[in-house]
Amino acid sequence: MIKNLNSKTMNQFIIIFILLTTTLMGQEISFDIHNKTLQEYLKFEKEIGSKRLALNTHYISLNGDAQPITFLRKQKIIPDLIVYYFFKEKDSSMSYILYEWDVSNFEKKDNNKKSRRFQKAMISKYSDLKEKISEKFGPPLVKKNYSNIARLDSLHIFEEESRWKNDSLEIKLYTTVSNFYKKEGAITINPVHRIRLYIKKVNKQKKSDIPELNDRKINKLDETTNAFFQALKEKDLSKAKKYLSNRILDKVTDKQILAFTRMIRLDKKTELINTGLEIGFNGKVYVMFQYKYVDDHSKPPKEIIKVLFDNNNKIIGIQPVKLIHVTK
């Protein structure tokens, strides 16, 4: 028993315990993604007793990533941590790691409000992560209360994003802690209690890889989008696939394409309202178009469709977005 240990042995025990605790706390988040292998990460998760999880969703990668390997680590008060390891399919080299503390991973219900004690624990965890990362990488770029939820309930939400970046590493930490609930027609805004931390390798973008936009290219890509929508409207999947990037063709099934057609209104005409460039999470720059429905005269529109194009002028990503309008 510990009470029978002499003072020297007791001191050694305390020192060993402190060293072990400090080491484990320091390893909770790994920033050494350039030097650690996937096998080293998997070994670490096994050593600390993490539970490996089976994926319920299929990730479509645009940069050669395999399906991520995920683990669950038990936490106190705040949601259990899920760690996602993303790596290259061809050689298992690391791409990025996502650490996620999110109530919605475990509780699926509307109006899921949390106690003040729980919310304080979430904010404290975010602040602790931000402080530790800043000690290592310097002060971050910070953005606060930037979402539509913040505009609706600015007094009771804690929302912040912190970013660090150097020549080889990009770190993004953000949180939303909100009990705001609103249901209006088909739109429901639920409470959110989430922290996400991305640690990602940075690959320098060659100037030649950055696409250029001119009137001729804009017209050509607009024609591609309209032709793609028309093929979907006609349920001609073979024709629709001709407009998709080769990088996603072998990852997208007919079933997924048909499911997507139910998310947009193919019976309505669309018009191009915005063009620009967007950096994907893989570090590459894509041409980005935004469309709205012609009969939607709201400002901003109630719905937009975002389309991304690769360097071969093919569609590499498409996302319907419903915007939340704030009534003053």
Structural class: alpha+beta
The low-confidence parts are: 1-26
Q: In which order are the strands of the major sheet placed?
A: 1-2-3-4-10-7-6-5
Strand segment tally: 14
Give the termini distance in whole angstroms. Answer: 67 Å
Q: Give helix and strand order, one letter per element, not per position.
A: HHEEEEHEHEEEEEHHHHEEEE
Task: Supply Rg.
Answer: 24 Å
What do you see in this structure?
With 328 residues, the chain is α+β, with helices and mostly antiparallel strands. It has 2 domains: 31-201, no CATH class; 207-322, Nuclear Transport Factor 2, Chain: A (Roll). It is 29% helix and 29% strand. It has 8 helices and 14 strands. The chain has helices at 7-27, 38-47, 116-137, 148-152, 215-233, 237-241, 246-249, 254-261; strands at 51-53, 69-73, 81-87, 94-102, 141-144, 158-165, 169-178, 182-184, 187-189, 192-201, 270-279, 285-293, 303-309, 315-322. The strands form 3 sheets. Strands 1-2-3-4-10-7-6-5 form an 8-stranded antiparallel beta sheet, with helices on one face. Strands 11-12-13-14 form a 4-stranded antiparallel beta sheet. Strand 2 and strand 3 form a beta hairpin. The longest helix is centred in the middle third of the chain and has 22 residues, at 116-137. The radius of gyration is 24 Å and the shape is globular. Mean pLDDT is 84; it is low at 1-26.
